[in-house]
């Protein structure tokens, strides 16, 4: 994991230059919104000034530079965006500061809605998480619980899924839900999702749907559904190491279609 975190910190500044990551994050948002239409309703109510409730408190793990975070923020009350790579969190903080510079009012709303946290989250009571009682500054009290936990393209970087699911179960309120997205392990060809030079921190070549669903149930989640939500074309290496010196110029890139899973479950 440490090698992967170092890699992601180093790549944070240039991460958003890849159009693929924007397209994938937008697809993840739309999949979550389709599964949770109440989020869309809440955004519309906020815009109309008719919102009856404050909206959901959301936990995002592996937020990266905030590509999904900032897309999700208008639909929720607050999103605590967690990542283990300091460079990614620093880039997200820079985006929030830039938003405040560009428009004081909307930037202030965004800063209020998004709480970036750098931590490798393995404990639902981690002092790095916001306290349940905002006035508790000791860091020793109970931690905030969430209505929804999300992640995108993170699961395949995490070696211990049962520990992750146990942690997320502890982070949720009763009735809280998971909505995790990642590409599916559909066989040996799924390895081609990553070029060979970017294998640091890759623990799985996609998620096996039935296995992950069983792990969710074992962690205590009910109403578990793990199934493909969209398919996305991605450029891949023609052979291992093809891109070691960068994508070859003047050569038509090979593409593959990768199915993405939406993993949903509810804490009783």
From TrEMBL:
InterPro entries: SAM-dependent_MTases_sf. Pfam families: Methyltransf_23. The keyword Coiled coil applies. Keywords: Coiled coil, Transferase. CDD domains: AdoMet_MTases (cd02440). SUPFAM superfamilies: S-adenosyl-L-methionine-dependent methyltransferases (SSF53335). Residues 82-109 form a coiled coil. This is S-adenosyl-L-methionine-dependent methyltransferase.
């Amino acid at each position: 994991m440490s090698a992967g975190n170092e890699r992601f910190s180093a790549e944070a500044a240039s991460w958003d230059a890849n159009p693929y990551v924007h397209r994938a994050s937008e697809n993840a948002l739309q999949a979550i919104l389709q599964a949770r239409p109440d989020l869309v309703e809440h955004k519309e109510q906020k815009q109309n000034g008719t919102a009856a409730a404050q909206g959901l408190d959301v936990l995002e793990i592996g937020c990266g530079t905030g590509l999904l975070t900032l897309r999700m923020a208008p639909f929720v009350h607050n999103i605590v965006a967690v990542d283990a790579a300091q460079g990614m969190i620093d880039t997200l903080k820079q985006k929030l500061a830039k938003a405040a510079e560009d428009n004081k009012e909307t930037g202030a709303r965004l800063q209020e809605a998004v709480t970036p946290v750098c931590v490798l989250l393995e404990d639902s009571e981690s002092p790095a998480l916001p306290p349940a009682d905002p006035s508790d500054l000791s860091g020793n009290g109970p931690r905030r619980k969430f209505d929804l936990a999300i992640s995108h393209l993170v699961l395949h970087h995490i070696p211990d899924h049962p520990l992750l699911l146990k942690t997320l179960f502890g982070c949720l309120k009763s009735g809280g839900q998971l909505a995790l997205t990642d590409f599916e392990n559909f066989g040996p060809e799924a390895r081609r999702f990553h070029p060979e030079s970017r294998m640091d921190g890759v623990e799985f070549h996609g998620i096996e749907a039935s296995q992950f669903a069983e792990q969710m149930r074992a962690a205590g989640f009910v109403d578990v559904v793990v199934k493909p939500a969209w398919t996305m074309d991605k450029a891949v290496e023609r052979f291992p190491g093809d891109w070691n010196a960068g994508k070859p110029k003047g050569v038509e890139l090979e593409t593959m279609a990768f199915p993405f899973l939406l993993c949903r479950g509810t804490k009783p």
